[in-house]
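Sequence design from tokenized structure. All designs in this work follow the same two-part layout: the structure record, then the generated sequence. An example of the structure record is given first.
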């Protein structure tokens, strides 16, 4: 019984697709699926972390500005409400207590300024920067801008008010309140610390959870690995797909396809061994018997005849072994690897010439004809010649002395198909036996022709390997009286460059 060695690199390389065969035997270590997934999960996380810090900083700045900007806005409106026009002059009626409250800040310095329509300082700090001309301030609307004073960054809230005046001239007043940014910076820092610091604790926890999740998620793969590793060496049964995760079902399905192919190969090997043992048993037994008889012969003539019988039996046994090996080679080569353009006419002529001596010995007229040259197909030249050899050999065996055998290659009536025909003037084949003669080891009952019953089986297998088929037809070579031989027809697709 044939056994398959799962650890054989040669066998495994044959089962792998061509694009995957170069992986084995290289020095590059295989990449870890766990590491790949972990990298692709953590890399974006580590990339987003500094981005989140930057976004957090901007958001913290915005949050920190909001309450202090509101306080500045209230101060601007309070000062604007205290402006009065007395005798055509603008006065700021701001009590001292209010000034002290305005200035009462432990961290920041607060500035205010009131500017008249003509640019004169009505009250406040004269060093406070004025708005730029291209950024006008609307009446009654408080606007904010950043600036600096005495080297310190400040935040300014400004508005313009329109005072009712008895004069016809326009009377607009600019009111500004500013403060330094110390409290804002402190608040922003506190917000950033409150958001960022927990991330230093959360991030390692996230990494651990991702690692744990991947470990649990890849557990079915580990279980599948252990299941395959614990299988018996000769176990080629398919792996159950239902228990596997949906994502690896295609992988398991592909692996099962390999197992099916391997099972077919194993069964083919078993079949070959059984058939070879059965078919070789008879000729080997005959050889032994003839050898024993030769040992007992005292007459030189009888001894010579026994040796001739031994030689003939050896030739038949060698031919049987050759056909068995050819059949095994055909069955174990489902995909032709050496495909070249083959001229069928030249191949037919070469093989026919090699059989002329044997045909002449039986006084058989063996010839090859073709209406045209260069009828080409894509295929394996060794297989094609083997096909011609078996077709001609079969025809010579079943054709009587004085018969005729014709080998012809031509185009079929259907476009893109070439026909190989080997016609003989032998006894022919009945319709009932035509399908069976293509089976392995089948021989026509009542035939006294020596043979193994493998020739047409080999031809059929080669034809299938090249995308063609074998047909057995009648060869009517005489009408009155009607005589019918056999016509072996092989159809093959035309080769295209």
């Amino acid at each position: 019984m044939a056994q398959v060695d799962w650890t054989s690199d040669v066998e495994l390389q044959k089962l792998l697709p061509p694009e995957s065969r170069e992986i084995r035997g290289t020095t590059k270590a295989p990449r870890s699926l766990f590491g790949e997934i972990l990298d692709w999960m953590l890399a974006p996380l580590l990339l987003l972390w500094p981005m989140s810090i930057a976004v957090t900083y901007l958001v913290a700045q915005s949050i920190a500005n909001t309450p202090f900007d509101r306080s500045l806005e209230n101060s601007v409106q309070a000062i604007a409400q205290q402006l009065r026009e007395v005798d055509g002059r603008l006065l700021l009626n701001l009590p001292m207590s209010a000034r002290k409250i305005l200035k009462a800040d432990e961290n920041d310095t607060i500035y205010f300024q009131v500017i008249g329509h003509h640019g004169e300082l009505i009250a406040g700090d004269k060093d406070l920067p004025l708005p730029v001309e291209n950024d006008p301030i609307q009446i009654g609307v408080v606007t904010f801008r950043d600036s600096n004073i005495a080297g310190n960054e400040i935040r300014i809230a400004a508005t313009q008010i329109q005072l009712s005046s008895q004069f016809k001239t326009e009377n607009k007043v600019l009111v500004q309140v500013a403060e330094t940014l110390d409290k804002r910076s402190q608040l922003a820092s506190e917000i950033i610390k409150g958001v960022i610091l927990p991330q230093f604790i959360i991030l390692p926890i996230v990494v651990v959870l991702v690692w744990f999740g991947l470990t649990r998620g890849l557990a079915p793969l580990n279980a599948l690995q252990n299941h395959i590793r614990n299988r018996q060496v000769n176990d080629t049964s398919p792996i159950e797909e239902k228990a596997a995760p949906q994502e690896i079902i295609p992988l398991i399905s592909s692996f099962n396809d390999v197992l099916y192919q391997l099972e077919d190969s194993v069964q083919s090997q078993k079949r070959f061994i059984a058939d070879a043992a059965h078919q070789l048993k008879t000729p080997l037994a005959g050889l032994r018997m003839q050898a024993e008889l030769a040992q007992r012969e005292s007459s030189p003539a009888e001894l010579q005849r026994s040796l001739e019988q031994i030689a003939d039996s050896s030739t038949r046994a060698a031919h049987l072994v050759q056909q068995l090996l050819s059949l095994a080679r055909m069955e174990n080569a489902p995909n032709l690897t050496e495909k070249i353009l083959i001229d069928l006419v030249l191949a037919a002529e070469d093989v026919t010439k090699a059989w002329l001596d044997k045909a002449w010995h039986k006084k058989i007229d063996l010839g090859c004809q073709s209406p045209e040259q260069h009828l080409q197909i894509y295929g394996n030249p060794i297989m094609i010649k083997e096909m011609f050899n078996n077709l001609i050999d079969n025809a010579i065996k079943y054709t009587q002395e004085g018969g005729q055998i014709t080998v012809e290659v031509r185009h079929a009536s259907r476009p893109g198909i070439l026909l190989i025909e080997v016609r003989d003037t032998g006894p022919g084949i009945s319709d009932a036996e035509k399908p069976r003669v293509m089976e392995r080891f089948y021989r026509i009952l009542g035939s006294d022709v020596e043979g193994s019953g493998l020739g047409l089986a080999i031809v059929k297998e080669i034809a299938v390997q090249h995308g063609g088929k074998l047909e057995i037809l009648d060869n009517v070579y005489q009408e009155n009286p009607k005589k019918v031989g056999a016509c072996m027809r092989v159809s093959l697709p035309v080769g295209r460059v």
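The first strand starts at residue 83 and ends at 86. We note this feature because it recurs in several other targets discussed in the main text.
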